């Protein structure tokens, strides 16, 4: 393998890629929800909940949110072969990889340059998923594979009990992520190592050894302890500071020589100056919760009659969002499930977008978020976050496909689209920003300060085109998408004329509403042919030869 070649994961059907239609989103005001009054100036109301296929939803978000999402958390179906009430989790391996690939590629484009992706997964696909993510994000942008202890009691059903899941972590740009990621707070057990043996007035502290690996001439001086002992750096090491800095620390009372005053010097680090700990890959259940805790949270929200399967505890999502984001940052979860990510992000003061295809988007997620916004949800992280309610979200449905088939088998503009929806959809298809002007009827979208888009279902004649060209004027351009036009288009160089729907028919797959992780309708595989009958006689037929 040459240096230019890279290792790639291959699977059956990898070359098949969907040609996604960039749908528009339609708000359902009856399901959107906002607090009756502001609780604080930090309340966030522009959160987004989308009901629909998550691949189409990601494509719908791309134009407006590319490069703006700070953290993506997803808890995709694990491909275990199990069947759950609210989604199917048992896909053929190659299909699972293809469906994940399509989603991850858009997710990467949505991430900000210092953003990160966090995926919970188990052993069934974790290692294949890592290779897939290496291919999409680049191996240098792999951050870590954290181990979440999801169970605290042993199970005896398997050859080896399943006690953990992985949290696979990738950055858009690993160096930028490292600069912005947050430390995690210390637990009470970790704080106990800070003591105060010399009754320092500043309080609890711990000693940090004052040596460093290597040899530096200006860090190889003698230190005389208060008790008279003389210390030099151990072999192969030097002091961690130069002598003037050491003397400054000594004058400040920041050097400790042990109870007898003769021990090797340690630098005093006070508890009140520790900002937290660098995150590491072992996440015990005591720190981030476990599956039983998550199920109890579900019971508190929905009751025991309708528990959501395999939920994640709020403390787990809290850990992820604490490391990856700050208040006001945007969080995305395109496998929303029971809505834990949005609930936790909301309580932590983060903006959020969630996507869910199933009916539980309405039956589970909406009432859960309503409780969060009302402040009546005091489970999960509510008490530690001092959550009192506030904010809101908007509920959206994916618009139907722009083109539909009429009774003669022709692709035509869907009858469900009004003029505004049509203009918005065509702006997405053409890469324009939908921004209709209040005063100029033909300015419905723009790609720059001088390039505009106009959509009409009318047939435009030479007089109307000439008037439009004069209005547009020199130094500006206008893309016109219309049913038809008459005249020579070359007469108006600042106008570009295209007929719809002919102009858009080949742009993407129309009428495809479900790219979900669901293979219930796959055809059965062809039966394998029977093996040929064994040959009569010979070495492979039991003879000695």
From TrEMBL:
<keyword id="KW-0808">Transferase</keyword>
<dbReference type="GO" id="GO:0009007">
    <property type="term" value="F:site-specific DNA-methyltransferase (adenine-specific) activity"/>
</dbReference>
<feature type="region of interest" description="Disordered">
    <location>
        <begin position="522"/>
        <end position="545"/>
    </location>
</feature>
<dbReference type="InterPro" id="IPR029063">
    <property type="entry name" value="SAM-dependent_MTases_sf"/>
</dbReference>
<dbReference type="InterPro" id="IPR002052">
    <property type="entry name" value="DNA_methylase_N6_adenine_CS"/>
</dbReference>
<keyword id="KW-0489">Methyltransferase</keyword>
<dbReference type="GO" id="GO:0003677">
    <property type="term" value="F:DNA binding"/>
</dbReference>
<keyword id="KW-0949">S-adenosyl-L-methionine</keyword>
<feature type="compositionally biased region" description="Pro residues">
    <location>
        <begin position="526"/>
        <end position="535"/>
    </location>
</feature>
<dbReference type="Pfam" id="PF01555">
    <property type="entry name" value="N6_N4_Mtase"/>
</dbReference>
<dbReference type="InterPro" id="IPR002941">
    <property type="entry name" value="DNA_methylase_N4/N6"/>
</dbReference>
<dbReference type="InterPro" id="IPR002295">
    <property type="entry name" value="N4/N6-MTase_EcoPI_Mod-like"/>
</dbReference>
<feature type="domain" description="DNA methylase N-4/N-6">
    <location>
        <begin position="69"/>
        <end position="360"/>
    </location>
</feature>
<dbReference type="GO" id="GO:0032259">
    <property type="term" value="P:methylation"/>
</dbReference>
<dbReference type="GO" id="GO:0008170">
    <property type="term" value="F:N-methyltransferase activity"/>
</dbReference>
<comment type="similarity">
    <text>Belongs to the N(4)/N(6)-methyltransferase family.</text>
</comment>
<protein>
    <recommendedName>
        <fullName>site-specific DNA-methyltransferase (adenine-specific)</fullName>
        <ecNumber>2.1.1.72</ecNumber>
    </recommendedName>
</protein>
């Amino acid at each position: 393998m040459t240096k230019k070649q890279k290792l790639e994961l291959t699977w059956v059907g990898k070359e098949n890629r969907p040609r996604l239609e960039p749908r528009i989103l339609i708000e359902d005001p009856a399901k959107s929800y906002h607090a009756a009054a502001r609780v604080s100036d930090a309340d966030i109301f522009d959160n987004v909940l989308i009901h629909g296929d998550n691949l189409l939803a990601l494509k719908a978000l791309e134009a407006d949110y590319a490069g703006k999402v700070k953290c993506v958390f997803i808890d995709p179906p694990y491909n275990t072969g199990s069947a759950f009430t609210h989604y199917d989790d048992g896909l053929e391996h190659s299909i699972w990889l293809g469906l994940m690939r399509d989603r991850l590629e858009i997710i990467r484009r949505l991430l900000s340059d210092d953003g990160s992706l966090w995926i919970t997964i188990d052993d069934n696909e974790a290692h294949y998923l890592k290779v897939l993510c290496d291919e999409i994000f680049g191996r240098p942008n792999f951050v870590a594979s954290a181990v979440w202890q999801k169970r605290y009691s042993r199970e005896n059903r398997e050859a080896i009990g399943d006690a953990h899941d992985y949290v696979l972590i990738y950055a858009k740009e690993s160096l930028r992520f490292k600069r912005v990621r947050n430390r995690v707070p210390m637990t009470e057990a970790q704080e106990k190592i800070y003591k105060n043996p010399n009754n320092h007035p500043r309080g609890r502290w711990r000693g940090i050894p004052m040596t460093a690996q290597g040899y530096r001439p200006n860090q190889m001086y003698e230190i005389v302890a208060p008790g008279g002992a003389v210390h030099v750096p151990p072999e192969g090491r030097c002091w961690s500071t130069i002598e003037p800095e050491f003397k400054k620390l000594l004058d400040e009372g920041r050097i400790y020589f042990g109870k007898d005053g003769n021990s090797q010097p340690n630098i005093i680090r006070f508890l009140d100056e520790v900002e937290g700990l660098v995150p590491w890959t072992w996440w015990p259940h005591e720190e981030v919760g476990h599956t039983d805790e998550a199920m109890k949270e579900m019971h508190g929200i929905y009751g025991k009659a309708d528990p959501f399967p395999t939920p994640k505890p709020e403390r787990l999502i809290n850990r992820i969002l604490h490391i990856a984001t700050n208040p006001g940052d945007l969080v995305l979860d395109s496998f929303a499930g029971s809505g834990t990510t949005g609930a936790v992000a909301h309580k932590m003061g983060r903006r959020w977008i969630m996507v869910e295809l199933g009916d539980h988007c309405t039956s589970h997620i909406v009432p859960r978020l309503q409780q969060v916004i009302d402040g009546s949800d005091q489970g999960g992280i509510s008490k530690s976050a001092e959550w009192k309610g506030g904010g809101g979200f908007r509920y959206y449905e994916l618009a139907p496909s722009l083109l539909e088939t009429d009774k003669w088998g022709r692709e035509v503009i869907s009858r469900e689209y009004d003029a505004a929806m049509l203009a918005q959809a065509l702006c997405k298809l053409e890469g324009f920003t939908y921004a209709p002007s209040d005063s100029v009827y033909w300015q419905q979208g723009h790609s720059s300060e001088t390039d505009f888009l106009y959509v009409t279902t009318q047939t435009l004649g030479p007089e109307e085109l000439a008037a439009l060209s004069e209005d547009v004027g020199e130094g500006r351009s206008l893309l016109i998408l219309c049913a038809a036009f008459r005249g020579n288009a070359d007469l108006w160089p600042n106008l570009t004329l295209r007929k719809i729907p002919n102009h858009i028919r080949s742009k993407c797959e129309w009428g495809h509403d479900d790219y979900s992780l669901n293979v219930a309708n796959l055809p059965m595989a062809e039966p394998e042919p029977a093996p040929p009958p064994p040959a009569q006689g010979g070495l492979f037929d039991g003879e000695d030869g």
